[in-house]
Every structure is written in C-alpha cells, then in structure tokens.
Amino acid sequence: MISDMAGLEKTIAEVIKEYLSGGAAAWAGKNGRPAADAPDRGGAVLRDITGQAAREAEFVSGALDREAILAMKRRTSARIGIGRAGPRLLTQTMLTLRADHAAARDAVLKDVDPDMLRSLGFIELESRCADRQEFLTRPDLGRALSDGAVDALLEKCVPNPDIQVFVADGLSSSAVTANLPDLWPCLMDGLHEAGVKTGTPFFVRFGRVALMDQVSELLGAKAVCALIGERPGLSAAESLSAYVAYGAKTGMDESGRTVVSNIHGNGIPAVEAGAYLAELLQAVLRAKASGIAFRKDDGL
Amino acid sequence: MPYRSSLFGRTFAFKDVKEVLAKANERKSGDVLAGLAADSDLERVAAKDALSQMTLDVLRQNPVIPYEDDEVTRIGEDLLDEGAYGEIKAWTVAGLREWILGADTDGEDLRRVSGGLTAEMVAAVAKLMSNLDLAYAASKMEVTARCNTTIGARGTLASRLQPNHTTDSTEGIRASLLEGLSYGCGDALLGLNPVNDTAASLSETLKLLDDVKNRLEIPTQICALGHISTQMEAVRRGAPTDIIFQSIAGSEKGNRAFGFNADTVREAQSLLQGLKRGAGPNLLYFETGQGSELSSGSHSGADQVTMEARCYAFARAFKPFMVNTVVGFIGPEYLFDSSQVIRAGLEDHFMGKLSGLPMGCDCCYTNHMMADQNDVENLSLLLAAAHVNYIIGVPGGDDIMLNYQTNSYHDSAALREILRLRPLREFELWLEEWGILRDGRLSGRAGDPSIFIERLGG
Q1: Do B450 and A75 make contact, defined as CB atoms within 8 angstroms?
Q2: What DSSP assignment string belongs to B81-100?
Q3: Does the interface predicted TM-score (ipTM) exceed 0.90?
C-alpha cells in the first residue's frame, strides 16, 4: 500500500510537470471553445484556472504579435493580454478574478482553525467586538480585550515575561492558519535556545494591532510581538505580519513599532520568518527599543 | 436654537444644525463610528424632515467648522457668488430640492445657482435626495473642462487609464498602458499611482507616459499621482506633465494631514501655467472620498457627507480638469457594504457636479468590504446614466499596486455601448485610426496591445 502511494505521488508529480510545461498552449482556448491541445488525463489532474500556467497565458483573439503580448505579461502581474467577449471579459478570466476575490473574502470572513490553535497550546481570547461585522466597522473595539478576556489573561498567563508573543486573526484568518504551524515552533525554539523567557501563548479573535499595548501593560512584558493577518489582496490572501514593540503603552505612536510584513508562501516563508523573528526579538531586548528608535543593524 | 420634528406623535429634537445634518444622512458605518449617526431609522427621517424646513441662509450662517478656524470654510465663503446666493437664501432645503428636480430647471439654471451654494447647502440637499433623485439631478448638469482635450461634454464617457505596477517598473507600466489603450481607455488621463513617491521616480514614469503619448500621438493628458510637492519637484527638474494631482479633504486640518494647504495648490497651478504644457485652462486633478477626514481625526464632529461636500467647495476654487471620489477605497468602517458605497458614489457625483466640478468616480471596493465586482459594475452603470464625466480603468478590474478593485478596461466600452455614449471626440478619432473603435463599438483590433509595438519601436 505504502509503495503504491509513493508510486501514485510520482505519477501525479510527473503529470503536473508535463502539464505545466504545456504552458500557454494548453490554455489558449478561444471564444469559449476548449483548447484543442488541452491534455486529457482522465481526471487525474484537473485544470486549475488559478494556476501559474493559466495566469501566464494570453487570450487575445487574432493577436498581431503573440510573442510581444507574452513578453508584456512577463513584465507585470496585472491581468493583461486577457482578451474579450465583445466588450466583456472572457469566461475564464472572469472566473479567475472571482476565484481570487473569493479566496480573499474567505480569508477575511472565516475563523482561524481552532484545532490548529489547540494543537499549538494556545489559549483562546477575544477582543471587545461581538462579531465579525462589529470587528470590521469598529476598529476601536478591536484594539482592546473583552472584560472576560482580561480576567482570563491575568489568571492563565505567566506575568512579566521578557517577550509576550500572541496571535490575532486581524483581517486574514487564512494568514494565521497557513503560516502559524510552521512559524511558531521556529520562533519559540529560537527564543528558548537563547534563554529568553516567553509568555503563555494565546490567540485573540477579532483583534487589531494596538491591542498589544494593553497586553503589554496587563502582563508587564518587556516586549510584545503580535502576529496578525493582513488585509488580503487578490494576489496574496495569506499574508501575516509581525508587529514588535518594546515597553508598549496604550496610546503609543505607531512609529514605535517594528514591523515585519509579507510573511507568506511567495513572500518570507513561515519557517524563515520564525527564525528571523527570534533574532529580531532578541535584538529588540538588547537595544531596549523598537520602531524608529531601533535600528535594524542593532545587533542583527 | 434646537430643531424639532414630530413623527407618529413623537417629537425629535436636535441641538444644532450640525446634528441635523449628521442625523439626516443615509446610514453609513463611518457616521456610526464617529458617534454621529441617527439612533434609529425614525430619528433619521425626523432629521431629514427638520432639515427640509431649514432655510439656506441658516446653513450659510452655520458652517460645520467656523470661518476663523478653517481655511476650507474661508475659501468657500470668500468665493461665494453673492448675487446667486441672494436669489435663493430664503428657500428651504425642500424648496431647493424640488427646484433642482423641476421640469423647468435646466443645466444652465443649475450652473447659475451653483455659485451661490455653500458646501453645507449642497450636502443638505443631497441628504433629501433618493438614489434616483441624485442620478436624475446630476444628469441635467454638463460640466466641461479643458486641458489638452475637453472632458464632460454631453454624450461622452471618458476613462482614466490607471496602469499601476508593484515596483513602478517602466516596462510593466507600459504593458498595462498599451493594454488599456487597446480597449479605448485613457481619454480622461493616463495616470499612474506610484509606489515610490520621489521626484526621480515620478520623472521616470512621466517620461514613459509622455513618450508613449507622443509616439502614438494620443490626444490626452498625463500625470503621475505622487504627493503634490513631489510632483512640483519633478516638474522643476524638467519632468513632463500636463496635470498635477492631490488628494484633498474637507478641512484645513485634513489637508494638513495630507501634507499641503491652499498655498501649495496655488503654487502648483502657477508652476503649470508657466510650463505651458497642458493647454488648459484646467490643469489640476483632485481625489476625495467620504470618511477621509474621520480617518485623520479632522472631521470636527461633522458627518462624512458634509465633509465630502466641503472638499468640492475647496476644489472649485482651483478650476480642476478632473475630480473623482475614490468611493470604496477607504474600507468597511466608513462604508460598510455595497449599498453604502453605491449611495456614496451617487451622492459624491451629484454634490461635485452641483458644486460646478467636472466630476468622475472611481467605482471601487476593498476585499474586507461587503461588496464585489458586480457592485462596481452596478455603480458605474448608474453613474454613466447620470452623465458622470469619467470612470477608472485597470487590467481586469484588479489594481495590483493599490490592492483594490475598480472597473476593468473593458467596462467603459460596455457602458458606452449600452448607453450610446462616446469617448472624448479627439480620442474617438484616434481610436478609429487604430481600428480599435468603429461606430462607437470595439472593433477587430480592440484588446490587442501588440498593435502599438511597431510604432513604439519594440
């Protein structure tokens, strides 16, 4: 059975490779007709209109200079060379756009996977927002913990850590679900190996960046690091950011925070980000500063 | 003096004009966030009722930010046409609404009265208009402006081509630019939002836009939408531009948060007049959007529709070539969903036109709002029917740099065809020469950006 599985994986990998190398030609279906040379794999591999090959193809009917259009497409990730049905989008282009938007919307609206949070040992808390609609329309309420969460924080979390790292969904729960399992162990291992005293891990639902100021004050942490999902774009729905502040206080300037953004598969990979953050946080502790008062070369 | 209204035997009282104005708004999440919105639908209608009976002189005497405290209020007040104001000052807001909608009132009448309206009056009447009222009233108003070409003539719908790129790569910008031109976009402006707001980077972008415009002999105007001071610096270093852009707010404090004031705009205007590139007389481009004042804490306790109207009172002092609201860019804490965005788009277009501005609209949304591409298409169809001067066009509706969605390059062509509108005349002739447009419809070569390559030399 196991050897069968391995064989199957190999076959799939080969098919995908062959399929992708077909590249633009496989996708150049015109005017609603399926592409004549689209490979028939008997359902082993389905076409994916969000895949790289689909995005790199051009769809202009009767183009004067097809190579020039492909060259233009290599210069930008914008949706160009996409052709038209009269003055409207072709079906495939329209559906790719809708798929990208759907992924972005799901990132905003769905909850972070609770099993993943539990498996990493996170306590689950919430901001003052009652639901997602309130979270989206009342940024002020997302910047503070609910009364119940304050009590739970004081009861369950280790006081006065060197560094309190916590996670919030922010505007992309997908960013947390996608990146945290790889990022978290690297970050914690890095800090613990250096002898840094870290706080009890917790997750805040409907949380925004400035919530870290309240966390810092309640727990008496030297530094706080908030890992938060960023507002999704169509090209990156799973982007996580880390906000770091030394001696954070309610009402502090945003310029007092150090930010590491763009943590996702096509940006800084989660494992790498975890290792980098461990170094950064130690440097922040040594410098006793963050934001504009902290220079990136301070011990890094 | 309190303002009162009675509905179903219940009396509602409002402490001042500012509260009546705020509570008379259609529901917007930004007014709720600011703590200014009506507490109930009934209170909202009561505020509208109180507002409908208010006379225009009361609104003039009660600007939402005092004359002494605010440059925007002063500009609006100092430039008011006293003759026009004298004709209407005793009218109620209800009277103004019905006069605007009246069968005997035409565009010429509206233009004459426009100069006598303060921002608060413009906002007040918008608050008493339904969506179709806003569209109907705006459709009466033809507001033209001229730079190299003339925008806003009845029967036209223009578009700003927005070829943004994630790193300002000139090759990448050029690729999106050619794609847009091949769909008949760009008659209002070839205008890039830069990532790098430096004079050197803006210069490089402007040289590219200018080069394509010259080689292809496109009758249009160009602009790189950096900060106004950066654009001036680029121009002083010899960068070619027809137009200078700035985002504006409805208060002096809001404009200060944007890093400029009226003197900065005057300086830009005289710089361009000396340059004699854009033929003019209209050489500036402003963008606005409900909620921007609240986001910078500069709304002075006033609602977002009134603050938006104040942007237009400021803008008209500088006779811009184009003005548009970036209506869904700001996020759900100001405009929650598609119904709020569509309402705001119709309000802003109407208020801008009533203020005498050549008004367009960036019909757009972000991914954390309850809106999607269908809503953008709805709004653009409503506004095109209401005779909006221009909309925005980006590849496939997706702006890869600003991370939001607006109209696709395709949309202006579809809207023109549905509503029998045409591009700006000079640009239409250019499109016909290239075989992109025939009889107002996209023809054979449309959508093929490679048709320009030979003329551009690779």
Answers
A1: no
A2: -HHHHHHHTT-BHHHHHHHH
A3: yes
